[in-house]
Design goal:
- This protein has 158 residues and is mainly alpha-helical.
- It has two domains: 73 residues, Arc Repressor Mutant, subunit A (Orthogonal Bundle); 67 residues, Diphtheria Toxin Repressor, domain 2.
- It is built from seven helices and two strands.
- A hairpin with a 3-residue loop joins strand 1 and strand 2.
- Helix 1 crosses helix 2, helix 1 crosses helix 4 and helix 6 crosses helix 7.
- The protein is elongated, with a radius of gyration of 19 Å.
- The protein binds manganese (II) ion.
Length: 158
Amino acid sequence: MSASKSTSKKKSPSQAKSNRHQTRAVEDYLEQIYNLIEDKGYARVVDIAQNLGLAQASVTNMIQRLDGEGYIIYEKYRGLTLTDSGRKVGEAITRRHQLLTRLLRHFEIDEATIYEDVEGMEHHISRPTLEVISALCEELDANPSLLKALQKRIEEQS
Ligand code: MN
């Protein structure tokens, strides 16, 4: 378990792909931990496992890795806290999650679909695109006739 250090050496496509998967997993964990701490004041392995639909043993492994990489501080009997860099990632992903959810809730999409799509998209959005989505949300809220026109167009498409 000591493979990937974040050196900037050239990576083969398959390495790059596996790193993306790891980044996504790291982001999902930090998002969950950030939300648990915001909501309850603490994050327990059992809650993280439940929210991510994973076994506690795999969560414990990942928690140790996140500790090793400086995202969290984990003490077995005292629980875990986010470091500054862990909090930054958790907060950024949570913001993206909230913004994307806010956009999609303007339309007739069921909550389960929104959640699933947002969980995918939140890892793949650049800052400029986020700003566009943010402006779009603002405009949709400020301009009901624009929203209506869009909803109508979508209805006609389907
Ligand atoms: Mn999310």
